[in-house]
Amino acid sequence: MVGEITKDRSPLLPDRQEQGDFFVCDIFDAAPKGDMASMAHPIFSLSTKPDHRRRRYESGANYLEVKPASEGLATIHDRDVLIYCISQIMAALNEGQKVSQTVRVKAYDLLKATNRVTDGRGYEGMRAALARLQGTQIETNIVTGGQEQIDIFSIIDRARIVRETRDGRMQEVEIKLSDWVFNAIRHQEVLTLHRDYFRLRKPLERRIYELARKHCGRQPEWKIALHLLQEKCGSNSTLREFRRLVRAIADQDEAHGHMPDYAVRLDDEDRVVFRNRQSMPPALSDELQDDLPPLPGDVYGEARGEAPGWDVHYLEREWRRWCAKEEIAPKRPDAHFLKFCRSWYERRGAPA
User: Fold this and answer.
1) CB contact at 8 A, 266 and 247
2) What pTM, to 2 d.p., does this model score?
3) Helix, coil or strand: residue 204
4) Higher pLDDT, 89 or 60
5) CB under 8 A, 24+ apart: contacts of 283-286
6) How many CB atoms lie within 10 A of CB 147?
7) Is the CA virtual torsion 116, 257, 326, 38 positive or negative?
8) What residue spans of the chain are helical by DSSP H?
């Protein structure tokens, strides 16, 4: 009979859409996280106008060169896109989910999570940010994930608008992160940021907060000479102007306490002093590592396959210690442990 569905044929039409290997960013309230490499080094421009400077920074044997595209360098505000993607991937890894270097993002969710406006300005700003992130190129020998990458690469490999509204406003975007960024994620080289980071108005405020988060961490205090801070920020101002800008931030922070996690002041010796506000959760002690449940017996055989030659019980102790230090409570401890073993072996290889 015409139109009859046979037993061997599905009542559904074949899926004719390409099924890419991507990770969907849909984890509600994922903690903001930034990769340590770009927190420590001045990759992003502090300018609010198109910045076409080509910049090179050296520190000992390490170097980093940043080259702009025609749209200019990626800015510190463009970094919000990267932070959102990293946050989502890390939250998924902590739950034992499979992730990918390509992520699919709902534009509205990204704008909301990063405290941006959700009208036409927000979507146009996101479109421009993606262009600058893809166009900005980096050449460096700084290691991420135990891998030295010395070729030239973009901050993101590509971005593709998957769905748009009728008026051309993007709804879903696919973003492929660079190997450099994804290596940092896979090897847990990230730090949690305060949610008020996205409320900081000035690019320089965001940059000095990143540096404090990276270098001060949970220490009571961190001091740095003003000229060294200027270099780490990547500021193009004169030292006199940079001093004025930092002093203005310090004065506002003294009046309003608006800088997240760290109070900022400029002392009489031209040093910038960051004092820990103790607003971050305290670091968990090693004694708390046993809060994680016992692992099932069959996971140890799989762990030996992930890290050949290593004592899996030693790796379990290191995993528990690391989870305590990073305040991670994975929903699937066995999958999380196996991921830890795989990462451990990738970084260290077989034991000597």
Assistant:
1) yes
2) 0.75
3) helix
4) 89
5) 283/218, 283/325, 283/327, 284/324, 284/325, 284/327, 285/324, 286/321, 286/324
6) 14
7) positive
8) 36-40, 79-94, 107-113, 120-135, 179-186, 203-215, 226-233, 239-256, 299-306, 312-326, 333-348
Q: Does domain 197-276 have CATH number 3.30.420?
A: no
Name residue, tokens 């989910």.
Answer: 97
According to DSSP, residue 187 is labeled T
pLDDT in tens, 265-303: 999 999 999 999 988 755 444 344 456 788 888 899 999
Q: Is 255 helix (H, G, I), strand (E, B) or coil?
A: helix
Least confident of 29-33, 43-47, 278-282, 319-323: 278-282
> Do the beta carbons of residue 184 and residue 214 sit within 8 Å?
no
Q: In the chain, where are the structural domains located?
A: 23-193, 197-276, 286-348
CA–CA gap between residue 199 and residue 205 (Å, rounded): 10
As given in the structure block, the two tokens for residue 136 are: 């900005």
DSSP string, 269-336: TSEEEEEE-S-SPPPPPGGGGGGSPPPPTTHHHHHHHHSTTS-HHHHHHHHHHHHHHHT---SSHHHH
Under DSSP, the state recorded for 14 is P
CA gap 206, 199 in Å, rounded: 9
**Contact indicator for 193, 44 with CB cutoff of 8 Å:** no
User: Could you give the angle at which helices 226-233 and 239-256 cross, rounded to 10 degrees?
Assistant: 90
Read off the tokens for 239: 């030292």
User: Both tokens of residue 137?
Assistant: 């190129």
